[in-house]
What does this fold into?
Amino acid sequence: MPYECHMHEPHPVRLVVGDDYRRSRLTVFFRLLLAIPHYIWFFLWTLLIVVTAIVNWLISIFTGKPPGGLHRLMCSYVRYQAHLSAYLALVGNPYPGFSGEAGEYPIDVRLPEEPVAQRRWTILIRILLAIPALIVSAAMAGSTGGNASFSGNSGRRTRGFNGGGALLFVCAVLGWFASLARGRMPKGLRDAGAYAIGYSAQASAYLLLVTDRYPNADPTEMLVAVTDRPPRHPVRVVGDPYDLRRSRLTVFFRFLLSIPHLIWLTLWGILSVLAAIAQWFVTLFRGRPAAGLHRFLAAYVRYRLHVYAYLMLVANPFPGFTGTAGIYPLDLEVGGPERQNRWKTGFRIVLGIPAILVNAALSGALFASAVLTWFYALVKGSAPWGLRNLSAYTLRYDAQTEAYLLLLTDAYPHASPLEGENTPAE
It folds into this structure.
Protein backbone atom coordinates (compact mmCIF):
# COMPACT_ATOMS: atom_id res chain seq x y z
CA MET A 1 0.00 0.00 0.00
CA PRO A 2 1.26 3.50 -0.68
CA TYR A 3 1.41 5.84 2.25
CA GLU A 4 1.43 3.39 5.11
CA CYS A 5 2.50 4.79 8.45
CA HIS A 6 6.06 4.73 9.78
CA MET A 7 6.97 2.04 12.28
CA HIS A 8 7.05 4.04 15.49
CA GLU A 9 5.36 4.15 18.85
CA PRO A 10 1.61 4.77 18.49
CA HIS A 11 0.30 8.17 19.48
CA PRO A 12 -0.90 8.20 23.13
CA VAL A 13 -4.19 9.77 22.00
CA ARG A 14 -5.88 7.10 19.90
CA LEU A 15 -9.20 7.07 18.13
CA VAL A 16 -11.66 4.26 18.88
CA VAL A 17 -14.41 3.45 16.35
CA GLY A 18 -17.14 0.98 17.32
CA ASP A 19 -19.88 2.36 15.09
CA ASP A 20 -21.98 0.03 12.90
CA TYR A 21 -23.14 2.72 10.40
CA ARG A 22 -26.83 2.28 11.30
CA ARG A 23 -28.70 5.51 12.03
CA SER A 24 -32.14 6.16 13.46
CA ARG A 25 -34.00 8.31 10.93
CA LEU A 26 -36.09 9.92 13.68
CA THR A 27 -33.12 11.04 15.78
CA VAL A 28 -31.20 12.04 12.66
CA PHE A 29 -33.99 14.37 11.57
CA PHE A 30 -34.15 16.07 14.98
CA ARG A 31 -30.44 15.74 15.80
CA LEU A 32 -29.74 19.45 16.33
CA LEU A 33 -32.81 19.95 18.54
CA LEU A 34 -32.01 16.89 20.61
CA ALA A 35 -28.51 18.25 21.22
CA ILE A 36 -29.69 21.54 22.80
CA PRO A 37 -28.95 20.37 26.38
CA HIS A 38 -25.44 19.48 25.21
CA TYR A 39 -24.92 22.98 23.73
CA ILE A 40 -25.63 24.50 27.14
CA TRP A 41 -23.50 21.98 29.01
CA PHE A 42 -20.64 22.32 26.52
CA PHE A 43 -20.63 26.09 26.94
CA LEU A 44 -20.55 25.86 30.75
CA TRP A 45 -17.87 23.16 30.74
CA THR A 46 -15.78 25.21 28.31
CA LEU A 47 -15.84 28.19 30.69
CA LEU A 48 -14.56 25.91 33.45
CA ILE A 49 -11.84 24.49 31.21
CA VAL A 50 -10.60 27.96 30.23
CA VAL A 51 -10.00 28.79 33.90
CA THR A 52 -8.63 25.42 34.99
CA ALA A 53 -6.37 25.16 31.92
CA ILE A 54 -4.58 28.32 33.03
CA VAL A 55 -4.16 26.91 36.54
CA ASN A 56 -2.98 23.60 35.10
CA TRP A 57 -0.47 25.41 32.90
CA LEU A 58 1.01 27.42 35.81
CA ILE A 59 1.34 24.39 38.07
CA SER A 60 2.85 22.27 35.31
CA ILE A 61 5.52 24.89 34.55
CA PHE A 62 6.85 24.52 38.10
CA THR A 63 6.33 20.79 38.63
CA GLY A 64 6.96 19.53 35.09
CA LYS A 65 3.79 17.44 35.29
CA PRO A 66 0.06 18.31 35.42
CA PRO A 67 -1.74 17.50 38.69
CA GLY A 68 -3.65 14.23 38.59
CA GLY A 69 -7.06 15.78 39.22
CA LEU A 70 -6.70 18.41 36.53
CA HIS A 71 -5.31 15.83 34.11
CA ARG A 72 -8.42 13.69 34.56
CA LEU A 73 -10.66 16.75 34.10
CA MET A 74 -8.92 17.63 30.82
CA CYS A 75 -9.20 14.02 29.62
CA SER A 76 -12.94 13.99 30.32
CA TYR A 77 -13.35 17.24 28.42
CA VAL A 78 -11.41 15.99 25.38
CA ARG A 79 -13.49 12.80 25.33
CA TYR A 80 -16.72 14.78 25.69
CA GLN A 81 -15.73 16.91 22.70
CA ALA A 82 -15.22 13.77 20.64
CA HIS A 83 -18.52 12.20 21.76
CA LEU A 84 -20.56 15.32 21.09
CA SER A 85 -18.81 16.02 17.80
CA ALA A 86 -19.54 12.48 16.64
CA TYR A 87 -23.20 12.77 17.61
CA LEU A 88 -23.72 16.12 15.90
CA ALA A 89 -21.82 15.13 12.75
CA LEU A 90 -23.64 11.75 12.56
CA VAL A 91 -20.35 9.91 12.94
CA GLY A 92 -22.03 8.16 15.88
CA ASN A 93 -25.68 7.35 16.54
CA PRO A 94 -26.44 7.00 20.29
CA TYR A 95 -27.18 9.99 22.47
CA PRO A 96 -23.94 10.83 24.29
CA GLY A 97 -23.51 11.18 28.02
CA PHE A 98 -22.52 14.43 29.71
CA SER A 99 -19.48 13.24 31.65
CA GLY A 100 -16.99 12.27 28.93
CA GLU A 101 -16.41 8.83 30.44
CA ALA A 102 -14.11 6.46 28.61
CA GLY A 103 -15.78 3.68 26.66
CA GLU A 104 -19.32 5.06 26.86
CA TYR A 105 -19.65 6.05 23.18
CA PRO A 106 -18.95 4.23 19.89
CA ILE A 107 -16.63 7.04 18.77
CA ASP A 108 -14.15 7.48 21.58
CA VAL A 109 -10.55 8.48 22.27
CA ARG A 110 -8.08 6.64 24.48
CA LEU A 111 -6.01 9.02 26.58
CA PRO A 112 -3.12 8.57 29.02
CA GLU A 113 -4.63 7.48 32.32
CA GLU A 114 -2.04 9.29 34.41
CA PRO A 115 -0.20 12.56 33.80
CA VAL A 116 3.30 12.22 32.39
CA ALA A 117 6.37 14.40 32.91
CA GLN A 118 6.78 17.00 30.19
CA ARG A 119 9.57 19.36 29.26
CA ARG A 120 9.00 22.66 31.01
CA TRP A 121 9.99 24.82 28.07
CA THR A 122 7.39 23.12 25.89
CA ILE A 123 4.78 23.68 28.59
CA LEU A 124 5.73 27.34 28.79
CA ILE A 125 5.16 28.00 25.09
CA ARG A 126 2.60 25.24 24.50
CA ILE A 127 0.01 27.55 22.97
CA LEU A 128 2.56 28.77 20.40
CA LEU A 129 3.74 25.27 19.60
CA ALA A 130 0.14 24.16 19.14
CA ILE A 131 -0.71 26.79 16.51
CA PRO A 132 0.17 24.63 13.45
CA ALA A 133 -1.89 21.72 14.81
CA LEU A 134 -4.80 24.03 15.61
CA ILE A 135 -4.73 25.39 12.05
CA VAL A 136 -5.01 21.88 10.61
CA SER A 137 -7.67 20.99 13.18
CA ALA A 138 -9.66 24.10 12.30
CA ALA A 139 -9.59 23.15 8.61
CA MET A 140 -10.95 19.69 9.33
CA ALA A 141 -13.05 19.79 12.48
CA GLY A 142 -13.03 23.36 13.77
CA SER A 143 -10.75 24.96 16.31
CA THR A 144 -10.17 23.29 19.65
CA GLY A 145 -13.42 22.66 21.34
CA GLY A 146 -15.41 24.01 18.44
CA ASN A 147 -15.69 20.76 16.58
CA ALA A 148 -18.67 19.95 18.74
CA SER A 149 -20.54 23.13 18.07
CA PHE A 150 -20.69 23.65 14.34
CA SER A 151 -24.45 24.11 14.60
CA GLY A 152 -24.62 25.93 17.88
CA ASN A 153 -24.08 29.47 19.05
CA SER A 154 -21.53 28.96 21.80
CA GLY A 155 -18.67 29.65 19.39
CA ARG A 156 -19.78 33.27 19.02
CA ARG A 157 -19.62 33.74 22.75
CA THR A 158 -16.38 31.97 23.65
CA ARG A 159 -13.21 32.93 21.90
CA GLY A 160 -11.33 29.96 20.45
CA PHE A 161 -14.35 27.66 20.57
CA ASN A 162 -16.03 28.51 17.30
CA GLY A 163 -17.70 26.64 14.47
CA GLY A 164 -16.66 23.36 12.98
CA GLY A 165 -14.25 22.79 10.14
CA ALA A 166 -15.36 22.43 6.56
CA LEU A 167 -14.65 18.68 6.29
CA LEU A 168 -16.65 17.66 9.35
CA PHE A 169 -19.46 20.04 8.46
CA VAL A 170 -19.78 18.77 4.89
CA CYS A 171 -19.67 15.15 6.11
CA ALA A 172 -22.46 15.98 8.57
CA VAL A 173 -24.69 17.69 6.00
CA LEU A 174 -24.27 14.99 3.35
CA GLY A 175 -24.55 12.27 5.99
CA TRP A 176 -27.82 13.78 7.21
CA PHE A 177 -29.45 13.35 3.79
CA ALA A 178 -27.92 9.90 3.26
CA SER A 179 -28.97 8.67 6.69
CA LEU A 180 -32.54 9.87 6.22
CA ALA A 181 -32.73 8.11 2.88
CA ARG A 182 -30.97 4.85 3.76
CA GLY A 183 -30.92 4.63 7.55
CA ARG A 184 -27.14 4.23 7.31
CA MET A 185 -24.17 6.58 7.32
CA PRO A 186 -21.95 6.06 4.24
CA LYS A 187 -18.61 4.56 5.22
CA GLY A 188 -16.54 7.19 3.42
CA LEU A 189 -18.25 10.10 5.17
CA ARG A 190 -18.17 8.29 8.52
CA ASP A 191 -14.44 7.56 8.20
CA ALA A 192 -13.60 11.10 7.09
CA GLY A 193 -15.60 12.55 9.99
CA ALA A 194 -13.99 10.17 12.48
CA TYR A 195 -10.54 11.14 11.20
CA ALA A 196 -11.32 14.84 11.67
CA ILE A 197 -12.58 14.19 15.20
CA GLY A 198 -9.54 12.07 16.06
CA TYR A 199 -7.07 14.70 14.92
CA SER A 200 -8.99 17.41 16.77
CA ALA A 201 -8.82 15.30 19.93
CA GLN A 202 -5.04 15.01 19.57
CA ALA A 203 -4.76 18.77 19.11
CA SER A 204 -6.95 19.41 22.16
CA ALA A 205 -4.98 16.94 24.27
CA TYR A 206 -1.69 18.58 23.28
CA LEU A 207 -2.94 22.09 24.02
CA LEU A 208 -4.43 21.08 27.38
CA LEU A 209 -1.23 19.28 28.49
CA VAL A 210 -2.80 15.83 28.46
CA THR A 211 0.23 14.74 26.42
CA ASP A 212 3.38 16.33 25.06
CA ARG A 213 3.25 14.21 21.89
CA TYR A 214 2.49 16.38 18.87
CA PRO A 215 -0.66 15.54 16.85
CA ASN A 216 -0.08 13.21 13.93
CA ALA A 217 -2.07 14.06 10.79
CA ASP A 218 -1.34 10.74 9.06
CA PRO A 219 -4.78 9.32 8.15
CA THR A 220 -3.51 5.73 7.99
CA GLU A 221 -2.11 5.75 11.50
CA MET A 222 -5.33 7.30 12.79
CA LEU A 223 -7.74 4.83 11.18
CA VAL A 224 -6.09 1.62 9.98
CA ALA A 225 -6.42 -0.17 13.33
CA VAL A 226 -10.00 0.90 14.04
CA THR A 227 -11.94 0.49 10.78
CA ASP A 228 -11.91 -1.60 7.62
CA ARG A 229 -10.46 -0.30 4.41
CA PRO A 230 -12.88 0.68 1.64
CA PRO A 231 -13.05 -1.25 -1.65
CA ARG A 232 -10.21 -0.62 -4.05
CA HIS A 233 -10.98 2.32 -6.34
CA PRO A 234 -9.99 2.18 -10.04
CA VAL A 235 -8.30 5.59 -9.68
CA ARG A 236 -5.39 5.26 -7.25
CA VAL A 237 -2.45 7.34 -6.09
CA VAL A 238 0.86 5.47 -6.06
CA GLY A 239 4.46 6.38 -5.44
CA ASP A 240 7.31 6.30 -2.93
CA PRO A 241 5.89 7.41 0.42
CA TYR A 242 9.21 7.50 2.24
CA ASP A 243 11.04 10.17 0.24
CA LEU A 244 10.37 13.28 2.31
CA ARG A 245 13.39 15.27 1.11
CA ARG A 246 12.69 18.79 -0.10
CA SER A 247 15.04 21.29 -1.73
CA ARG A 248 14.97 24.47 0.37
CA LEU A 249 15.70 26.62 -2.69
CA THR A 250 12.86 25.25 -4.80
CA VAL A 251 10.55 25.22 -1.79
CA PHE A 252 11.11 28.93 -1.25
CA PHE A 253 10.27 29.74 -4.89
CA ARG A 254 7.72 26.94 -5.33
CA PHE A 255 4.79 29.15 -6.37
CA LEU A 256 6.83 31.11 -8.91
CA LEU A 257 8.28 27.92 -10.35
CA SER A 258 4.76 26.53 -10.70
CA ILE A 259 3.41 29.41 -12.82
CA PRO A 260 4.19 27.80 -16.23
CA HIS A 261 2.41 24.65 -15.07
CA LEU A 262 -0.60 26.57 -13.79
CA ILE A 263 -0.95 28.31 -17.17
CA TRP A 264 -0.63 25.04 -19.08
CA LEU A 265 -3.03 23.30 -16.67
CA THR A 266 -5.63 26.01 -17.29
CA LEU A 267 -5.35 25.69 -21.07
CA TRP A 268 -5.46 21.91 -20.90
CA GLY A 269 -8.44 22.16 -18.57
CA ILE A 270 -10.40 24.12 -21.18
CA LEU A 271 -9.73 21.43 -23.78
CA SER A 272 -10.66 18.75 -21.24
CA VAL A 273 -14.07 20.30 -20.70
CA LEU A 274 -14.73 20.13 -24.44
CA ALA A 275 -13.42 16.58 -24.60
CA ALA A 276 -15.59 15.58 -21.64
CA ILE A 277 -18.70 16.92 -23.37
CA ALA A 278 -17.89 14.84 -26.44
CA GLN A 279 -17.17 11.85 -24.23
CA TRP A 280 -20.52 12.29 -22.48
CA PHE A 281 -22.40 11.91 -25.77
CA VAL A 282 -20.26 8.95 -26.82
CA THR A 283 -20.78 7.16 -23.49
CA LEU A 284 -24.52 7.81 -23.52
CA PHE A 285 -24.76 6.33 -27.03
CA ARG A 286 -22.31 3.41 -26.75
CA GLY A 287 -22.32 2.75 -23.00
CA ARG A 288 -18.51 2.88 -23.11
CA PRO A 289 -16.13 5.88 -23.36
CA ALA A 290 -14.06 6.40 -26.51
CA ALA A 291 -10.52 5.09 -25.96
CA GLY A 292 -8.77 8.15 -27.46
CA LEU A 293 -10.74 10.64 -25.38
CA HIS A 294 -10.22 8.43 -22.33
CA ARG A 295 -6.42 8.55 -22.75
CA PHE A 296 -6.50 12.33 -23.25
CA LEU A 297 -8.61 12.94 -20.14
CA ALA A 298 -6.61 10.46 -18.06
CA ALA A 299 -3.40 12.28 -18.95
CA TYR A 300 -5.03 15.57 -17.89
CA VAL A 301 -6.13 14.23 -14.49
CA ARG A 302 -2.68 12.69 -13.93
CA TYR A 303 -0.98 15.94 -14.93
CA ARG A 304 -3.27 17.85 -12.58
CA LEU A 305 -2.15 15.56 -9.76
CA HIS A 306 1.52 16.11 -10.62
CA VAL A 307 1.14 19.90 -10.67
CA TYR A 308 -0.72 20.13 -7.38
CA ALA A 309 1.62 17.64 -5.74
CA TYR A 310 4.51 19.91 -6.72
CA LEU A 311 2.78 23.17 -5.84
CA MET A 312 1.54 21.89 -2.46
CA LEU A 313 4.93 20.36 -1.56
CA VAL A 314 3.63 16.79 -1.54
CA ALA A 315 6.45 15.91 -3.95
CA ASN A 316 9.77 17.56 -4.74
CA PRO A 317 10.85 17.23 -8.43
CA PHE A 318 9.70 19.66 -11.10
CA PRO A 319 7.00 17.79 -13.05
CA GLY A 320 6.80 17.28 -16.78
CA PHE A 321 4.08 18.80 -18.94
CA THR A 322 2.63 15.66 -20.51
CA GLY A 323 0.92 13.79 -17.68
CA THR A 324 2.72 10.60 -18.66
CA ALA A 325 2.33 7.69 -16.24
CA GLY A 326 5.36 6.67 -14.19
CA ILE A 327 7.40 9.87 -14.53
CA TYR A 328 6.63 11.48 -11.16
CA PRO A 329 7.13 10.32 -7.54
CA LEU A 330 3.43 10.84 -6.80
CA ASP A 331 1.57 9.23 -9.67
CA LEU A 332 -1.93 8.23 -10.66
CA GLU A 333 -3.13 4.83 -11.84
CA VAL A 334 -6.22 4.97 -14.04
CA GLY A 335 -7.80 1.90 -15.58
CA GLY A 336 -8.77 1.66 -19.23
CA PRO A 337 -12.21 2.53 -20.59
CA GLU A 338 -14.95 0.23 -19.32
CA ARG A 339 -18.70 0.02 -19.71
CA GLN A 340 -20.55 2.62 -17.67
CA ASN A 341 -24.12 2.89 -16.52
CA ARG A 342 -26.00 5.17 -18.92
CA TRP A 343 -28.24 6.48 -16.14
CA LYS A 344 -25.19 7.51 -14.10
CA THR A 345 -23.65 9.02 -17.21
CA GLY A 346 -26.72 11.10 -18.03
CA PHE A 347 -26.88 12.67 -14.57
CA ARG A 348 -23.12 12.73 -13.91
CA ILE A 349 -22.91 16.43 -12.98
CA VAL A 350 -25.82 16.20 -10.56
CA LEU A 351 -24.54 12.99 -9.02
CA GLY A 352 -21.09 14.55 -8.63
CA ILE A 353 -22.27 17.47 -6.45
CA PRO A 354 -21.70 15.69 -3.09
CA ALA A 355 -18.18 14.72 -4.18
CA ILE A 356 -17.51 18.29 -5.30
CA LEU A 357 -18.56 19.54 -1.84
CA VAL A 358 -16.30 17.06 -0.05
CA ASN A 359 -13.44 17.96 -2.39
CA ALA A 360 -13.93 21.66 -1.65
CA ALA A 361 -13.86 20.94 2.09
CA LEU A 362 -10.65 18.94 1.75
CA SER A 363 -9.02 21.78 -0.17
CA GLY A 364 -8.89 23.79 3.05
CA ALA A 365 -6.90 21.05 4.75
CA LEU A 366 -4.64 20.80 1.69
CA PHE A 367 -3.90 24.53 1.72
CA ALA A 368 -3.22 24.55 5.46
CA SER A 369 -0.89 21.57 5.11
CA ALA A 370 0.97 23.23 2.22
CA VAL A 371 1.54 26.46 4.13
CA LEU A 372 2.81 24.65 7.23
CA THR A 373 4.96 22.29 5.14
CA TRP A 374 6.52 25.30 3.40
CA PHE A 375 7.84 26.66 6.71
CA TYR A 376 8.84 23.22 7.97
CA ALA A 377 10.69 22.32 4.77
CA LEU A 378 12.62 25.60 4.76
CA VAL A 379 13.94 24.79 8.23
CA LYS A 380 14.36 21.01 8.05
CA GLY A 381 14.83 20.33 4.34
CA SER A 382 12.10 17.70 4.45
CA ALA A 383 8.32 17.39 4.62
CA PRO A 384 6.55 16.25 7.80
CA TRP A 385 5.24 12.71 7.44
CA GLY A 386 1.73 13.34 8.77
CA LEU A 387 1.01 16.49 6.76
CA ARG A 388 2.40 14.96 3.57
CA ASN A 389 0.06 11.96 3.94
CA LEU A 390 -2.90 14.19 4.73
CA SER A 391 -2.13 16.11 1.53
CA ALA A 392 -1.83 12.86 -0.44
CA TYR A 393 -5.30 11.89 0.79
CA THR A 394 -6.78 15.20 -0.38
CA LEU A 395 -5.08 14.90 -3.78
CA ARG A 396 -6.29 11.34 -4.18
CA TYR A 397 -9.87 12.39 -3.55
CA ASP A 398 -9.48 15.33 -5.94
CA ALA A 399 -8.22 12.98 -8.66
CA GLN A 400 -11.07 10.55 -8.08
CA THR A 401 -13.58 13.40 -8.28
CA GLU A 402 -12.09 14.70 -11.52
CA ALA A 403 -12.02 11.18 -12.96
CA TYR A 404 -15.69 10.69 -12.08
CA LEU A 405 -16.79 14.02 -13.57
CA LEU A 406 -14.73 13.47 -16.74
CA LEU A 407 -16.21 9.98 -17.26
CA LEU A 408 -12.96 8.09 -16.75
CA THR A 409 -14.89 5.84 -14.39
CA ASP A 410 -18.37 5.58 -12.94
CA ALA A 411 -16.97 4.46 -9.56
CA TYR A 412 -17.89 7.17 -7.07
CA PRO A 413 -15.04 8.91 -5.20
CA HIS A 414 -14.50 7.36 -1.77
CA ALA A 415 -14.18 9.88 1.05
CA SER A 416 -12.44 7.50 3.44
CA PRO A 417 -8.89 8.68 4.22
CA LEU A 418 -7.74 5.05 3.95
CA GLU A 419 -6.47 3.55 0.72
CA GLY A 420 -8.63 0.77 -0.72
CA GLU A 421 -8.02 -2.94 -0.31
CA ASN A 422 -5.49 -4.63 -2.56
CA THR A 423 -8.16 -6.71 -4.27
CA PRO A 424 -10.82 -4.98 -6.34
CA ALA A 425 -14.36 -4.87 -5.02
CA GLU A 426 -16.69 -7.39 -6.58
Observations:
- The mean pLDDT is 90.
